[in-house]
Amino acid sequence: MKSTGTDSPPYKLKKRKLVAENTRFNIYFDHVTSEEDVDVPDYLVVSPKRFVADGFSGVAILPVVEGKIALLKIYRHAIKNWSWEIPRGFIEPGEDLVESVARELFEETGLRCAHENIQPLGSLHPDAGTLSARIQLFAGTECAVEQAYRANEIGHSGMELFDKDAIQAQIHGNEIQDPSTLVAIFRFLHLDDPAKTE
């Protein structure tokens, strides 16, 4: 069932307590209650500190280089494991979404993609149960190497190009588990008009 966005929430926020923060996120314990005797005094909410129009806090891009999809190999401390992911990041002040995604693409991969070759793939909430963030997904076709890849963020290890069969084998083999990456791949490979997902 699709929500219209006007439905009333089934519970009330009684109190919000900031319990931790860093440069990018606030972490809250929300005390929520309902008429049906639901009482949760410590509902965990992780919220980005900056949002832009339509509630977006970040962008992610699926880069295509000579018909192959580029993925980053990243060690993620939170899960104590390696992850294959598309480039992504936060939107900086004054940037529109396409500028932001082009910048993140170059910073994380050394790839450039003309703005006219960056197309929207819709949006997603990465973890609606905890994270109050919304990410705009894009695909960048005809991307090209402008500078050699170099790992410049914590955990980043390398970048590899995969053809469609290799990508699907990784998905079926549970080697790709990142939600933004899975959704972007699905929408890029299976939808006739990705813009319809906006």
From TrEMBL:
Protein name: GDP-mannose pyrophosphatase
Cofactor: Mg(2+)
GO cellular component: cytosol
Family: Belongs to the Nudix hydrolase family. NudK subfamily.
GO biological process: nucleoside phosphate metabolic process; ribose phosphate metabolic process
Span of the signal peptide: none
Domain Nudix hydrolase, first and last residues per copy: 54-184
Keyword Hydrolase: yes
InterPro entries: Nudix_hydrolase, NUDIX_hydrolase-like_dom_sf, NUDIX_hydrolase_dom
Gene Ontology molecular function: hydrolase activity
Reaction equations catalysed: GDP-alpha-D-mannose + H2O = alpha-D-mannose 1-phosphate + GMP + 2 H(+)
Alphabetical keyword list: Hydrolase
Biological source species: Nitrospina gracilis (strain 3/211)
